[in-house]
Amino acid sequence: MGVELSLDPPVCPIQANGGTSKHKIINHCDKMLAYKVKSSNNSNYSVNTIYGLIQIGYTADLIITRKPGKPQADRLIIQFASVEQDCRDPKAPFATGQPVGELSGETIIKLSAAE
């Protein structure tokens, strides 16, 4: 396993008083990927999409929004699993709580809100 999925830019510089940050989720592998975005702080952070599919070599837009609040060490976890090309349900590989597929894993993004 190498880098199957990454985020560009890889950091999320949002102020503690709120704002948005735009990113691309990138599929680097030779399989279509299903993904799920999880947050360690759902009170302050939200994303435009929780589940999605990314074709081989393609990207998906991810917009991270932060509400005003005290800064702390938060993170986003993007879980991923390989799926067949005809897959249309991005939630299916995560039904057990963990990503299930021939290729699976997660990428962690540190959320560092500055005052």
UniProtKB/TrEMBL annotation:
SUPFAM superfamilies from the UniProt entry: PapD-like
InterPro entries reported in the protein's UniProt record: Ig-like_fold, MSP_dom, PapD-like_sf, Sperm-specific_class_P
Name of this chain's protein: MSP domain-containing protein
Record-annotated MSP domain positions: 1-115
Lineage: superkingdom: Eukaryota
Record organism: Caenorhabditis remanei (Caenorhabditis vulgaris)
